[in-house]
Amino acid sequence: xxxxxxxxxxxxxxxxxxxxxxxxxxxxxxxxxxTFDKRTRDGAPLPMVRELPxxxxxxxxxxxxxxxxxxxxxIVFFTEDLKNKSRYCTAEGDMRPDYEGNTVKCEKKHILTxxxxxxLVNKLLPDSIKLxxxxxxxxxxxxxxxxxxxxxxxxxxxxxxxxxxxGITGADFILYVAAGPTHDVNVAWGVPCALRSGGRPAxxxxxxxxxxxxxxxxxxxxxxxxxAHALGFSVQLFTESKMVTKLSKIRGKSNVLVxxxxxxxxxxxxxxxxxxxxxMELEDEGGAGTAQSHWERRNAKDEIMAGVxxxxxxxxxxxxxxxxxxYYRANWGMEEVMGWGRNTGCDFLEEKCVNNGTTKYPDMFCxxxxxxFQCTSDHLALGVCGxxxxxxxxxxxxxxxxxxxxxxxxxxxxxxxxxxxxSGEGACTNTLKNFTGCRVGPNSRCVESDLLRFNSVTxxxxxxxxxxxxxxVASIRYVGDDTxxxxxxxxxxxxxxxxxxxxxxxxxxxxxxxxxxSAVLKPTLDNNTFQKLLTPVEGTVQRSxxxxxxxxxxxxxxxxxxxxxxxxxxIPSLPWLLLCSLLGALLGI
Length: 589
Known about the structure:
Elements: H1 3-6, H2 11-24, H3 36-40, E1 50-51, H4 59-64, E2 71-72, E3 75-78, E4 95-97, E5 103-105, H5 114-133, E6 136-138, E7 143-145, H6 162-165, E8 168-169, E9 173-178, E10 188-195, E11 201-208, H7 219-231, H8 235-240, E12 244-247, E13 256-259, H9 262-272, E14 280-281, H10 316-324, E15 329-330, H11 346-350, E16 374-375, E17 381-385, E18 387-389, E19 406-408, E20 420-427, E21 444-447, E22 449-454, E23 457-458, E24 462-467, E25 474-477, E26 485-487, E27 491-493, E28 499-505, H12 509-513, H13 527-534, E29 538-540, H14 553-560, H15 574-587
Parallel strand pairs: 3-9, 9-11
Antiparallel strand pairs: 1-7, 2-6, 4-5, 6-15, 7-8, 10-11, 12-13, 13-14, 16-17, 17-20, 18-19, 21-24, 22-23, 22-28, 24-25, 25-26, 27-28, 27-29
Keywords: Cell adhesion, Disulfide bond, Glycoprotein, Hydrolase, Membrane, Metal-binding, Metalloprotease, Protease, Signal, Zinc, Zymogen
Cofactor: Zn(2+)
Family: Belongs to the peptidase M8 family.
């Protein structure tokens, strides 16, 4: 019996959603889905701050002086809502504000402990802010006074009275921070509250879900994403600055919004190596909360301004968009290299990700139903190919396989292109769970392997600990051996016991070190030892964006789905394995 004839259209999405939980839940990864557009769409115009001259300087002097020099963006945050116990959860059952206009009942996970508050104030916020202050320049603001009132969510935050009277000095942007309960898919959310006379946001608000506060390194990237929205990364401001063009017939889609302003178009063409790219596409999936004010994730999955947070590279595209707004300048040289889409050429932007079950881009998209682990594109986790049979034909734009009902997960926002999705508890940084053959920890990353066998078991990708102290060449150490080994890009490393066969394939340095370079605090190898170990590394493995996969779609379907089943390839932890088995029985898998 065909699944589509057995289940109603209302039941199928629920089943698929539960199957997705088998992949996403317990992965140990930060799962952040931004809802910025929902919070700001159809909002009232933002009020203006009042800019005042410095003490001892007349107004005429202030407004006729020569144009000030550009300097690093100074972001100062205030935490009045974290100092008042009636404004955050202290115990299960408390009734507290969620800073969206509601009072909600606190669960245990929502409690803001002293340790979490200290981590937020002393680590997460400074790290997130530094990502912007290192890369954005502004004309400094001497002194500004807040408007008498705000609009929207900004009215719900506590603000010192003096900010409305005496004003704020020594800051170009101020951020009011709270820690009210958020929905599980939202690590945090940020919005702009007021503008300067030239249009640049001067005030913002940020609410951080206490349940997400931890020492995870990738967490600061999700917070920096929300701060970027407060700083002006929004389709509204892009449109006001005449940066957006609406195009049709992009990969069969119509009414696609593209940031086509000069600098953004230039760096987009350079990144993708496509001299006819019209600019950087904006997201058109994810509903009202995510569409438009994010980069198209199909094209920029691992970028900091993609709609679903991941490793979050602060790339040249985001820096260029800020610069094209006119009131920021980018600190060029500080952009981070994102491997996703790099040098893929115009075909990547103009053609389908998968064509008749074959892809030119196996480093990004997958058609392989193998149950051996592979690395997610950000190298943060072990994963498997997220390939579904939806039991109904997909829209013609999203048909990539012989079977029109097959495609990737819509939750990935990749235009139904299948990608490697993290497996249950498969995060390499998840210290609570260790997979066979893996060395997990805060500085661990996923690497691919070639016929690697752990004792007598053939395994796929593994987690290794990474050191990036020798620029350009990463060092790794694997489970069962505390020695650090140089791992130059594209080379193969033959590990010793407990591995009995196969090789580790060394990834690109930028893929594992860009967001890890400052994480290793103690030396791993002195230079002489490093050079000696570098010599015997085994021969190279050629990496290619253009080599088609050997496995075709129909083979993957037989291996992975059976004839009429609807599923996703996952290897979840036991509780989710039981759930998936139950669902599998229900679906006839």
